[in-house]
Amino acid sequence: MSSPRRMPSVTDVVVALGTGAATLAALIAAPQLFAGDATVTVDIAAWWISGAVLASQAIALCFARRAPVSVLFGTSVGALLVGVLAPTGLGSLADAAVLVAVLRTTLLVPPRRLKVLLPLAGVLVAGGQTADILGSSAVTVPGALGAALLQAVAIVALPAAGVLAVTARRDAHRARVGETEAMRRERAAVVEAAVARERTAMARELHDIAAHHVSSIALMAGVIERQIATDPDAARVAVRQVREQSRVLLDDLRQLVGLLRRDGDERDAVETLETVTALVESARATGRVVDLTTAVGGGQVGPLGQLVIYRMVQEALANAARHAPGASCEVHLDGTRPDVFIATVRNAPAASSIPSSDDIPAREGFGLLGMRERAGLVGGTLEAGPDAAGGWVVRLTVPAEPTNTPGGPT
User: Fold this and answer.
1) What is the Cα–Cα distance from 133 to 127, expressed in whole angstroms?
2) How confident is the model at residue 347 (pLDDT cuts 50, 70, 90)?
3) Sign of the dihedral defined by the CA atoms of residues 329, 386, 223, 249, in that order
């Protein structure tokens, strides 16, 4: 049994039968239709030769999908044979199969191969048409060549050009669809990456806020535990401070989560250098000794840089409370240089009974890593490590823009 892949397609069979039936019907009706036309001379031999060629072309068209090149060449040779062997003036009937083969071949064969196939088919069609005209009428050679050339253009060139144009538009549409899909996937990937970055940033912010306030609450809770029996009044004050710190923590968390719910046209409240004072006051309210000094000068920091400085001070104070409880801290904001702004947080060594800041693990924690990443976002640098006195120093340097002075450059 033959493989299904070797069988002609239904479409090819229908087209072949239709083409063959139409051309054979025209051939059979030709003697009656052109009985008074002297340019059409049909004898028995020429009639049978033409009929055999038309039938062969119809059979060949059944395999136009499987072997388009062979079918195009075969039908074109058939058109040439009709003109050469049976010049009756009806040679155009054989060109109908060539037209169908051209359409099918142009759709199935790569354009680089069509550069040879289509001109060859055009030459065969023109040759058959020339021989048919010269053998059946008294037309001169130039006239026959002109008519044959027009026939070749009509049968081969114009249909092929139309199919190629449609194919080019189809390929361009597919390319646009593919490009649109690729852009959609790229946008989805960008959105996913942005979401991942935002999640990381949110984690950093949550860690900074929680570390700062929770460490203060834990420190005050330890003090309250010792004061309950010895100094109840001071313990009650400390409890109120814990409650206040808890409220501030909840407010900060609510504000951070609220960033996810705000509309795009709303302005987000961000921390600035001015709010560092409130941060220091909040740390002092827990009973810690924190000194703040500020030196202003010729440099100013943008909003993002100020937020980075605020978060660094917040995280540094939280680390000091966690790793060196009871140690005094110094916060120094230096804006005297025109090109950079330097923020420094230094804590003294802890009491001997409590692990000092030298005992901080050498491996950077999540908070210190977050501070370094924020510094990198604004083109700054962060340095952290023990000082000569046994304490711990965190220094943040961010770029600053010079402030225009009267009479200076604008």
Assistant:
1) 10
2) very high
3) positive
C-beta of residue 276 within 8 angstroms of C-beta of residue 309: yes
Residues 288 and 282: their CA atoms lie apart, in Å, by 9
Please give the pLDDT value at position 255.
Answer: 63
Q: What residues pair up with 347 in beta bridges, in sequence order?
A: 329, 392
Structure token digits, residue 383: 């340095």
- Dump pLDDT digits (tens) for 73-87: 889 898 888 888 877
Confidence of residue 402 (pLDDT cuts 50, 70, 90): low
CB 349, CB 357: distance < 8 Å? yes
* Reported pTM: 0.44
Q: Is residue 397 within 8 Å of residue 340, measured between CB atoms?
A: yes
- CB-CB contact of 69 with 107 (8 Å): no
- Main-chain dihedrals φ then ψ at residue 385, nearest 5 degrees: 170, 175
The DSSP bridge partners found for residue 399 are 340
Angle subtended at Cα 192 by Cα 190 and Cα 195, rounded to the nearest 5 degrees: 110
Helix (H) or strand (E) holding 241: helix 232-258
Record the tokens describing residue 60, joined without a space. Answer: 């060949």
pLDDT for 38 equals 55
Helix 303-323 / helix 158-230 crossing angle, nearest 10 deg: 40
Phi and psi angles of residue 267, each rounded to the nearest 5 degrees, phi first: -85, 135
Query: In 246-303, where do the E strands start and end?
Result: 290-296, 299-300
In this predicted structure, the answer to whether residue 48 has a pLDDT above a threshold of 60 is: yes
Residues 348-353: contacts with CB within 8 Å, 24+ apart? Answer: 348/324, 348/389, 348/390, 348/391, 349/324, 349/389, 349/390, 349/391, 350/323, 350/324, 350/325, 350/326, 351/326, 351/327
Pull the structure tokens for residue 332. Answer: 């120094």
Taking residues 56-70, report their average pLDDT: 87
Residues contacting 227, CB < 8 A, separation 6+:
234, 235, 238
